[in-house]
Design goal:
Elements lengths: L8 H16 L12 H8 L3 H13 L3 E4 L3 E4 L10 H9 L4 H25 L2 H17 L4 H17 L3 H4 L2 H15 L10 H12 L3 H18 L7
Antiparallel strand pairs: 1-2
Amino acid sequence: MEDARSASPRIHGAIAHDIGVEIVGGIRKPGDVFGGEIEASEALGISRTAYREAIRILAAKGLVESRPKAGTRVTARHRWNLLDPDVLAWTFEGEPDPEFILDLFELRGVIEPAAAAFAARRRSQEQLDAMQAALDDMGRLGLAVSEGRAADQRFHRVILAAAGNEALAALASSVGAAVSWTTKYKQRTRALPRDPLPDHILVYQAIAASDPDGAHRAMAQLLHLALADMDLPPRA
């Protein structure tokens, strides 16, 4: 009988993490086939139940597919849920493709300036207070520590919520993860080249002033400068 503890979320989550990092890092390539369930679970030293749960996690994120008789294989990249917060985290554990980082900034450039403009029209006082609290934490803690980056995430998430659009709000976890990981990535080899807090304050001020055009411009400029800080080759 399998040990029920071996199927705990901690264990199958850790296995999903390890395999996921291998997939997004290119160690396991699209089309690669996993061994049979018994063989794979024994090789990993876990129960079959834990292995199955790990594979289910990966399948839900589009990284693998399992078919009767054909087994489990890594899917093509275009099927991966690249904006899943776990997949983003696994991607940035390695050395992400610069093109993917540019993709993230292009996506944010479509979403966040529009969200800021909506927020300037629709924000509540409570949401303004939450933005101010996040800015205060960013200023106090800085972005070199995880708590400061979490405050940065909160600022961007509140703006998406303040846009008053459920579809935009649904992107909050993905955008928040992209904010956190790209900020952390910038600091891998050097300190942040400048303090981005003033850029965030300008966005807040425009939203507080109910200035949609100003909020759109301020957020677009914030993203432009954040991408410039990455020191990546420009995209046409």
